[in-house]
């Protein structure tokens, strides 16, 4: 009597998806750029099919600008000096836009894993980093839309550029560089936390002290000494001061270089960890 033997699969589908593909490490720069471009197009088409995903980008800068200018502007700059406060708060809000949009990247990555989208990407012969970089590129595009709306509302309320258009673009570029570095932190959170709600909750615990313990909304000189010490080392304060100096012509000091140093440092630490976590996540 003959016996029939069956072979049991040695790996699960999830493990196969997470394991490196042959030749993955030999993908060149041109191949990486092509993969990133294709994934950027895919993510952009998703936004086109779901316009509601742009509601935060469209309404957040409008609501925050009106709220802080008309609720806090008179108290901080004096009644009737809202125009002066607009020039103070709008550059600071540019820094805030990057951080709030970065939070959405983490929840999006976590949700994509729950839906199985990321497992499908990991089964393809593409560079793992291209999936995450494409997400950041699209979110930077969303951030630019938010900053454009923020500036438009600011100009309506009396914002004036006291330097040059080039300096304005430098302020926007600096905000984009710092925002991109923050996105790696939130991608790592999205890959680590079990649910999108957990990512959002952890993000708020980080966002609130950094945003309100900074020079975005009010000069640190009005704060108690212990809070001023925190504000001085807060990277959001450095970015807000740099953007404010580039737009208003106030002294920059070392704020630009400190912001760039923070951006490079955060990216250098979190990007490799996030990519490795993306490879290994099951």
Architecture blueprint of SSEs:
Layout: H1 13-18, H2 29-49, H3 55-77, H4 82-115, H5 117-122, H6 128-157, H7 165-192, H8 196-212, H9 225-233, H10 235-248, H11 255-280
Helix pairs in contact: 2-6, 3-4, 3-6, 4-6, 4-7, 4-8, 4-10, 6-7, 7-10, 7-11, 10-11
What key phrases describe this protein's structure?
282 residues; mainly alpha; disordered N terminus; transmembrane; ABC_2_transport; Transport permease protein; transport; membrane
Provide a descriptive summary of the structure in words.
By secondary structure, the chain is mainly α. Helix content is 76%, strand content 0%. α4 packs antiparallel against α6, α4 packs across α10 (235-248) and α6 packs across α7 (165-192). The longest helix is centred in the middle third of the chain and has 34 residues, at 82-115. Mean pLDDT is 82; it is low at 1-25.
Query: What's the helix-strand series?
Result: HHHHHHHHHHH
Major sheet details: none
Sum up the overall morphology in one term: elongated
| Poorly predicted runs | 1-25
Distance between the termini: 43 Å
Report the C-alpha radius of gyration, rounded.
Answer: 22 Å
**Number of DSSP strand runs:** 0
Which class of secondary structure composition applies to the elements?
A: mainly alpha
Proportion of helical residues? over 70%
Strand content: under 5%
* Overall pLDDT metric: 82
Number of helices: 11
């Amino acid at each position: 009597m003959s016996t029939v033997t069956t072979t049991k699969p040695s790996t699960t589908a999830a493990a196969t998806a997470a394991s490196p593909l042959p030749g993955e490490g030999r993908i060149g720069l041109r191949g990486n750029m092509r993969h990133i471009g294709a994934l950027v197009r895919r993510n952009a088409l998703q936004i086109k099919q779901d316009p509601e995903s742009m509601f935060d980008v469209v309404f957040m800068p409008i609501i925050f600008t009106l709220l802080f200018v008309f609720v806090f502007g008179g108290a901080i700059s004096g009644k009737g000096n809202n125009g002066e406060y607009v020039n103070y708060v709008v550059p600071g809000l540019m820094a805030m836009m990057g951080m709030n949009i970065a939070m959405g990247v983490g929840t999006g990555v976590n949700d994509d894993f729950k839906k199985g989208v990321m497992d499908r990407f990991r089964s393809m012969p593409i560079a793992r980093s291209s999936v995450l970089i494409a997400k950041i590129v699209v979110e930077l595009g969303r951030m630019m839309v938010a900053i454009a709306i923020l500036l438009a509302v600011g100009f309506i309320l009396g914002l004036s550029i006291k330097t040059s258009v080039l300096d304005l673009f430098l302020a926007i570029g600096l905000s984009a560089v710092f925002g991109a570095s923050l996105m790696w932190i939130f991608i790592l959170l999205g890959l680590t936390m079990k649910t999108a709600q957990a990512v959002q909750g952890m993000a708020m615990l980080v966002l609130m002290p950094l945003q309100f313990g900074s020079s975005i909304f009010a000069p640190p000189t009005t704060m108690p000494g212990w809070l001023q010490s925190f504000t001085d080392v807060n990277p959001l304060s450095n970015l807000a001061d740099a953007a404010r100096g580039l737009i208003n012509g106030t002294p920059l000091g070392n704020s630009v270089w400190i912001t760039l140093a923070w951006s490079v440092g955060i990216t250098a630490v979190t990007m490799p960890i996030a990519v490795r976590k993306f490879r290994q996540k099951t």
